[in-house]
Each structure stands twice: as structure tokens, then as C-alpha cells.
Amino acid sequence: MMRIALDAMGSDGAPATEVAGALHALSHEAGDVTVVLVGDRARIAAELDRHAASEGDRLEIVHAAERVSPNESPAAIVRRKPGSSLVTGVGLHRRGQVDAFVSAGPTGAVMAASVFLLKRLPGVDRPAVGTLIPTTSRAHMLMLDAGANVDCRPRHLLQFALLGHVYAQDLMGRPKPRIGLLNIGSEPEKGNERTVEAYRLLSQSGLNFIGNVEGRDIIHGRCDVLVTDGFAGNVLLKFYESVAGFVIRVMDREQERIRTPLDRSTIEILDYAEYGGAPLLGVNGVSVICHGRSPPKAIGKAIGVAAKAVRSSMIGHIARYLAETAARIP
Amino acid sequence: MMRIALDAMGSDGAPATEVAGALHALSHEAGDVTVVLVGDRARIAAELDRHAASEGDRLEIVHAAERVSPNESPAAIVRRKPGSSLVTGVGLHRRGQVDAFVSAGPTGAVMAASVFLLKRLPGVDRPAVGTLIPTTSRAHMLMLDAGANVDCRPRHLLQFALLGHVYAQDLMGRPKPRIGLLNIGSEPEKGNERTVEAYRLLSQSGLNFIGNVEGRDIIHGRCDVLVTDGFAGNVLLKFYESVAGFVIRVMDREQERIRTPLDRSTIEILDYAEYGGAPLLGVNGVSVICHGRSPPKAIGKAIGVAAKAVRSSMIGHIARYLAETAARIP
Description:
2 copies of one chain form a homodimer.
Chain A: E1 2-7, H1 16-28, E2 33-39, H2 41-50, E3 59-63, H3 77-80, H4 85-94, E4 100-103, H5 107-118, E5 128-133, E6 141-144, H6 154-172, E7 178-182, H7 193-203, E8 208-213, E9 225-227, H8 230-258, H9 265-268, E10 278-281, E11 287-289, H10 296-311, H11 314-328
Parallel strand pairs in A: 1-2, 1-4, 2-3, 4-11, 6-9, 7-8, 7-9
Antiparallel strand pairs in A: 5-6, 5-10, 10-11
Helix pairs in contact in A: 1-10, 4-5, 6-7, 6-11
């Protein structure tokens, strides 16, 4: 049995998108998964009616009257909006009433509430947002941090690598994840002071560190886990999404013009919409953040990511791995 | 009359690529432009023979026996390789024997030689590499710094903006260039300490500052000049190039499969190869850096960029603008 709380009021299309996403997830997940929809009970119930679904064995509603809006200060969210769907959902996880939390609400607020209520794991100075980046090899790459930490020290980058290592093992099926450091040259001395020192730490970490990865290598997926500060990570991620969207629109138009279906599978692997859910790694719980513009399928996939993290005992593995590493690297 | 020195031994395909590029430029430029090919005289002459061209009114050779290789330390290049085509070419410019210098040699070495020999303009702490980024609006955007300065202070970002402002006016035909600051959110307080302070400086600069520009805005060309540190700038640039190349290869294959020509003009605007030449801005001279893998057309375009910079008196404008700004912003 596993219970996953879904912030039903998070996305731009809430709660319709979330309800559809929950149903999508339930149709794909094993029967032991229950989704707990957190938000305005009447609106959620009305959406369930539209789908001719109901609260049943695998779907519950926990009422939360308020909603977090994008322009609220994340830092104060737990204190100022305790009755919001977001804070209520994280609270359920903190109290052990659910095993994981998923939200398409404002990233900063999801992070702040998760860090504040679930707490950081020992050995983690700064939890990081991981994002699955599609690559031309059709295997994804986990990039972290994707925007939570705009200024990072070398030891934060090392911690990101440790977190990503376990994630890649448990959720991506990579037994010996290749760790890369995002940099502007391939040699160890390239980049800035931060990357040079991070390179040194990663080399001594016992991780399968493959060295620096340049911007041009990203799309080819040279590594399984790409470590970066949140500034470059976020710029890259948002740019990636916009380019993928642009290319797909161009191909749509072209297909219409020549009245011939194009094989767009190679391009569509670049499209983020297929890949729901950025895990917040380093907190004592499973918290998965979705894009505010997520379609239902992306929400469904994020619930799948959360389920997989629970099923694989990822949090326990991370905690153990961090403790082992701390004993090895002073 | 204008003389432009071209490092004939810089690119991966040197000197064939450079000779073809020079001929390409001469066929497009006005008759007042002379290209001075700097490098191995015999090899350059042999290439000219292949094109049935010769040293004539608009083409000269200056012999330089050595060549800078990519793994040499840029810092020591002037001292250690004074006889290289690269250092010889910059030297011609320093002594006023040519009006501009173009090279597809190692970026760091071109920069180091240019800064060392041409010197920085007053008011410039760190010269920056500007790159023209194609956008879906079909107008290019100048991004700087594209990799010269991996750690930047806010005042460096302001200086990049001032340099970019004049470049956009003189070379891109934008009378009132829109300046954007690359950041991970749109509000002034977003980003890190550096971007928050840079935002403040730019707001007070008298420039047409439009605020923060996010990764997702880049492809749509929301500004004319995008200011960033060289780390994020370089990662972005290299990623951009690789994605464009990937998409074009996919469309090539698709075109062959369906045996129908696709209109690729919209995609091809993303391809860097069309856009030759990244100006090194902030030195007392015109120095244009090309990609090591540049095709002849890109070299030709870079010579065109250099010619335009000379013709518009860009260096004088930059010097005057920096002096005016220094008087206004203490």
C-alpha cells in the first residue's frame, strides 16, 4: 500500500489537470497506489463527476480551502498559507499520512514547504531540484540543480552528485551512473574556481565521475547525472524547453503544408511535456515538482516518479549513501 | 581603403578554409577591402592557385611560419609564439598596418593576444566575446560574454551592456538597442547577488534596459543585446549550436525518407554556421573570432563583420560612449 498526495490546486489548469493526471496515473500504476487529492473538495468532486469517476478505493480527497499563488514569497508560505493545498499536502507527508507529495504549484513554494516541513537529510546543505533532460540517445539524463540554488559552493555540487547517483540507480536503472560536471571546457582546470574545486572533490568521491561535460555534449547524453549550479541549470532547462517547443511547432506547420506525415519521434524526445516531475532531492521525503503548465499526462508521470521513489526506498538509500560518503570523505 | 588581416592558419581546415573564406568575402565586399592572409606563404599560394586566384590588388600574403595549437596556454602565447600567424596578425593591427584582425584559431589565444597587444579601452575591465544568436524573429541577438570571463562582477556585466549597445547600433542597425540581463526569473530581485546588483546598475545606466530575460525568452529574441557571465553564456551557446545541428540532421533524414523537400528556412536560422564571427569587444581594435570548425562562408562573413566595424568607426564610438558613461555613472 502506498499513498501519494497530489496538490490538486497547483497547475495553471487546476484542478481539472490534476484530476485527469491522477486518473491517468491510476490507470498506469499498480493497484497498491492511492492518490490523495488535496484542495477544494467541491471543485475536485465536480471534476471527478465529469470523468464519471468517484472517490473510491484508490482516490481520496483532503479538503484545503486556500491556494498558493505564484507571486507569494516562498519563504513565508508555511506560516502564511497553512491552509493551502500545497502546505496541507506536504504536512500530510510530514506526519506520515502519505508516502510522497506531488505538486505543480510554484517551484519556490513547493521547495520551501518541503525543506521546512520534511527537513534536510543529514549531509545535505542544500536540497536540489533534479530534472530529467531528454537526450538523442533516448535515455534521459538527470540534471541537478535545475534552479533551487543560484549560488553554489563546490561541496554543494558534490552533494548534488551524491543525490543524483542514488536517484539514477533507483529510478533510472543505471547501476553505475556516470556523473558529469557542467563546464565550459573538458580539461580539469577549465571553468571557474568553483568548477575546478568541484572537479577535484568529484574525482576523490568514489563516484563514477567522467569529468567535465560541455554545453555541446548535453543533447548527446554523455552522462547519466549532470551536476551544475542552479543558475546555469535553470537557464539551460528553460532554453531547452523553448527550443523543443519551437521545433515541434515548425514541424507541425511543415506537415500540414506538404500534407505528408513526418516522423517526429526523434524530435519529440526533446519535448519536456512527456517527462513529468522534477524530484526535490536531499529532503527527508519524496517531493516531486511539476511544471505549472503541465498537461495531465505529465502530472500522471510525476505521480509515477513518486511511486517509483517510494517503491525503491530511495530516501533510505540516499540517507545511507550520504552517511557512508561522509565517513569516507571528511 | 581598408585592410583586414586574416589568420590563415587558424581553423581546423586551414589554410584551405581561410583562403576560400577570403575569396568569398572579396566577392561580397566593396572594392575598398583588402584581405591580408597571414600564414605559411607556400601553402597559402598553393591554395590560391587551386582557386585560380592570385595575390592581387585586394589580396596579400604576410608570411608567418608557426601556428598556434589548441592546447597551448593562451596566457603565454605572445611571448612563446611571436612568429605564429595569430600573433603576427594581431601585431599588424597593433602597428596600424591593418584595420582589423580575424582568426578561427583557439579562442583563448586570440583573446589573449588581442588584449595584450591591442590593449583594453579605458573603462573596460574585461573585454568580452560577443556572439550573434539567431532568433525565431529572424533578427539576431548579440549575447555577451560568450566565454571569455567565467567569473563576473556586476560592473563587468554593466560594461558588457555598454559595449553591446554600441555594437548593436553600429553593426546590427538597432538605433535604440534593447538590453536584457540573462536571469532565472523576470522580477528584479530574482537570481543571485550578482544579477540583482547588475539589474540595479543597468536600470541606472541610461541604456534601454528591458529587464531580466529568461532561458525561455532567448529563442524569441526579446532583446537585442543579452548580457551574461561567460560561464552561462558559453554553456548556452554550445548547447544551442548542438541542438541546431541535431535538428537539421533529423530534417535531412526525414527529407530523404519522404522524398519531399522540406522548407527548412525556419530551422536553418538556428544554425550557427551561417553566422560567422564573434567580435572581441572592449579592446582598442577590431578583433573577430571564428569557430574552429567554421566553413569558408562563415570566415567570409566574419571578414564582413570586421569590415562593417571598421567602416562604422565602432571602436571610436565605443571609446566615446564609455567616456560619456563614466562621466555620468561614477
